[in-house]
Amino acid sequence: MMVPVLLASDSLHVIWEGKTFLFFGGYDYHRLSRHPEILRAVEESIQSNGLSSGGARITTGTHPLHIALEARLSKFFGTAATAVLPAGYLANLALLDALSGENYLCYFHPDCHPSLKDAIRMSGLPKIAIPSDPEELSARIAWNEKRPLIISDGVYGTLPPLPDYLRLAERFDGLLIIDEAHALGILGKRGRGAAEHFFLKSPRIILSGSLGKALGAAGGFVSGPKSYIDAVLKTCAYGTTSALSLPLAAAAIAALDYLDANAAMMADFRKRCVKTKKDLNAMGYNVPVIPTPVIGISMPDAAGTDALKNSLIGAGIYPSLIRYPGKNDYFRFALSSRHGEEHISRLIEALRKVAGN
């Protein structure tokens, strides 16, 4: 499969096939990967620590920066403990592996991230897709003797009914896993994610996610009650892979500090996301109006897809047509807090030209 090769020319533009385009792709929602404060933390870490700790976490690879990042994430989420891994994919793999010996039945959201589906499959735990009717989910859990392990991302095109999921987890002695990868730094008054957005707090919640989205760094995490994190620490995914690169750990700590200092910025960003989606709905695009930056648009046929692609290119906007495993082709636009009104207006006008096609 051919993939586009993109070179960022600044925080808002990419060079593609020799030309510069306004960019609404990717998940660097606050462009922290290029923020001076974050880059300064990276530079200082490189000078002090180099690139790598030179080992796995259970051998010689645990560095004070790893411990500091895990403590910082626990403080950020208000959890008892956190395990940091080199990637979000590995975080979900480690978490489900840690729970694989228990008497759980996985109830997974049908649209959950492939990393969660792979982790469930490799855990060997039995699984059932969550039905759309909460009452049907409740009945299925009540009927089965196994404890429910309810698994969902924090955000999809819409917001999942996480309060309903938590009530069921608590009622039936189960757990709720929320992958906060795309909600961290976006949802909640302080950017803590979907759990904060829904005011959820429970010892039956385990959070996982990526440090490579709104934080602009890389790596993954599992955060929650200490007993479950202790189990994660015993997995091969956590212990025997090379530890997270030290400059990236420093970047993630600096990014968390940045979010703590910029709650007003995140609140303003959520408002602009909602306004943009309302404008698109008024034009005829069926876009759920939720305070998140990703906008998915599918065209009815190949002609419509080509028309939108050409409209975007004509407006100097990179045509972010996504061909993702297991999904139909669609355009995926991701607003960032660095996009100004003039940038968003240009995107809206390019979409307006082909509205209704």
Strand content: 15-25%
Q: What's the CATH class of the largest domain, please?
A: Alpha Beta
Distance between the termini: 28 Å
Element string (H = helix, E = strand): EEEHHEHEHEHEHEHEEHHHHEHEEH
Q: Helix content range of the residues, please? A: 40-55%
The stretches of 5 or more residues where confidence is low (pLDDT under 50) are none
CATH topology of the largest domain: Aspartate Aminotransferase, domain 2
| Domain tally | 2
Radius of gyration: 21 Å
Walkthrough of the structure:
- The protein is α/β, with parallel strands linked by helices and 357 residues long.
- The protein folds into 2 domains: 7-29 and 263-352, Aspartate Aminotransferase, domain 1 (Alpha-Beta Complex), CATH 3.90.1150.10; 36-261, 3-Layer(aba) Sandwich (Aspartate Aminotransferase, domain 2), CATH 3.40.640.
- The protein is 41% helix and 16% strand.
- It has 13 helices and 13 strands.
- The protein has helices at residues 36-49, 64-77, 88-99, 114-123, 134-143, 162-171, 194-197, 226-233, 236-239, 246-261, 263-282, 302-314, 341-352, and strands spanning 7-8, 13-16, 19-22, 81-85, 104-108, 127-129, 147-153, 175-179, 205-210, 220-224, 294-297, 321-322, 330-334.
- The strands form 3 sheets. It has a 7-stranded mixed β-sheet with strand order 4-10-9-8-7-5-6, with helices on both faces. Strands 1-2-3 form a 3-stranded antiparallel β-sheet, with no helix packed on it.
- Helix 1 (36-49) packs antiparallel against helix 10, helix 2 runs parallel beside helix 10 and helix 3 (88-99) packs parallel to helix 4 (114-123).
- The two termini are 28 Å apart.
- The model has no long low-confidence stretch (mean pLDDT 95).
